[in-house]
Amino acid sequence: MEIEIREFTVKRGEFLLRPVSLTVRQGEIFALLGRTGSGKTVLLEAIAGMFPGDEGEILYDGVNVMKIPPRRRKVGIVYQNDGLFPHMKVEENIGYGLKMHGYSKEERERTTERLMELLSISHIRNQYPGTLSGGEKQRTALARALALKPELLLLDEPFSALDPATKQMLYKEIMEIHRSFGCTIIFVTHDFKEAELLSSEVGILLDGELLEVTDGKRLMKEKHCRKIEDFLGDRG
Amino acid sequence: MPEFMRFCERRIFDWIAGIIALAVLLFIGSAVFVIAAGGLPGFWNNLKSEEVRFAFRMSLMTATLSTVIVMILALPTAYALTRTGMPMKGAFSLLIELVLSVPYILLGLSLLVIFSSPMGKQLKEWGFPVVFSPAGIVMAHLLVNLPYAVRLLKTAFEASDRRQEFIAQTLGASPFQCFLTILIPSCRNSLISTFILSWSRGMGEFGATLMLVGVTRMKTETLPGSIYLSISTGNNEAAMSTAMLMLLISGFAMILVRAAEQSGRRRIREVREDRWK
Question: Which residues partner with A153 through β-bridges?
Fold first, then answer.
């Protein structure tokens, strides 16, 4: 799925996201990089359809989705704090979307089983989210988002609360998911090394303004404007 | 400053607060003690009386029925006030707060005026009398408890995590499915507490009921009405025994509310303990 954002702006309380225009190509991994409070999550949620925005438009494969509700957008979303349903076990969380779409019990079990194996969480299928580690929660949230084979996967700082070792494991799993599912991925991060490692393109958002879109692998090698240089800091 | 003086300076507010707390506890406790002391001697005899049994059944039936109706109406109302783009939400919320602060006897008076009107008389002709009838007790409970339940549920819905509902929507859930499968379970303990507290208030409601249906022995007599009639006829022992019964019912309701709150916390603690086995 190709995502095109045209002059999109939104005001949330005192915060203003200034007109954003960018294109994320089909099958790309795109990172939204910026400081905390710069508007990355706001933009991500707007892409998912949480709120309509004040001006501008968002297109999926050339179709304006501003009036299309989230449940018809073929989008999966994973939040930093996982957002798992606390009253449902891991298996039920993963199968939730399939149930809402009317899949039969057998199909739900088959798909859920496959995803739990893919993300190595079969052993926790009967546990509630409150008992899981950070890495297990993120894997469960990923499995839940992938159950409906979304064409667009949105990840809101999915690795920020994890220890370095778990992060490395999840980086590999994200790349594997990208290869297996072929979906477009947009992920939010404030870690520029993470953005450089995982993404093909990086959009740098600071103080509600998209300042630059650049090649992910060249992020740390190229010179940028003063504001971005201050954010990236000393790169040795 | 000597050490002792510094110690006193640090502790003086704690002591003052403690003394006032003790006085408050004695004041509240004395009310409970007086009811227990006055109600216990003739308690079992009073329970056997036909009037008290009738009043108990009437209170139980009307409180339970009105609470079920309250919850059916309050749930979608609280949802509309917190989750939809309904116009004039602020005005509605203000109206609810206003009704909550109005004396219940005035609420009863307003119902009396409404149901004494031609509309009320027509309802009576259609076989649905309200004034001076048990249906009126349910109506009085509704008006007293509905704003209370809406406010409690509104608070619970406002506190719940909206991102979970949004995630449910991205997974294909309609607004009604989000309500049923995400919002209601996440507010389960609040729902149970609201039900029990509304029911308890219904059991104890008197002012609005008195105004709308009066208190007629063996017809519109509820437990609070029974106390009122007993006092009016000088039968203090019966009044205190019935008050003791109401105190036990209220205590039972409080225990249920606590149990509902603690069961949620216990479940989380137990599954966390399971993790470490």
Answer: A76, A185
Residue of A nearest to B276 (CA): A131
Residues of A in contact with B271 (CB under 8 A): 127-128, 130-131
Determine contact: B181 vs chain A, CB below 8 A: yes
Q: pLDDT per residue over A52-105, tens digit each?
A: 888 889 999 999 988 888 988 889 999 987 789 999 999 999 999 999 999 999
Of A79, A21, A40, A26, give the one whose Cα is nearest residue A200. A26
Cα radius of gyration rounded to whole Å, chain A: 18
Which of B171, B185, B272 shows the shortest C-beta gap to A100? B171
- Encode A55-83 in three state secondary structure: EEEEEECCEECCCCCHHHCCEEEECCCCC
The interface pTM score, or ipTM, of the predicted complex is 0.89
CB A85 within 8 A of CB B184: no
**A43 touches A123 (CB < 8 A):** no
Per-residue pLDDT tens over the stretch B136-162: 999 999 999 999 999 999 999 999 989
Correct CATH for A1-74+150-236 of 3.30.565.10, 3.40.50.720, 3.40.525.10, 3.40.50.300 = 3.40.50.300
User: Which candidate in B163, B164, B171 is best for mutational testing of the A interface (most A CBs within 10 A)?
Assistant: B171
Tokens linked to B187: 């507010």
Q: What is the residue whose two structure tokens read 């995803």? A: A115
Task: Please give the C-alpha separations between residue A223 and each of A32, A226, A229, A233, B127, in angstroms, as whole numbers.
Answer: 18, 9, 7, 12, 85
Please state the domain count of chain B. Answer: 1
Q: At how many degrees (to 10) do helices B134-159 and B104-115 cross?
A: 120
Q: Where are the domains of chain A?
A: 1-74+150-236, 85-149
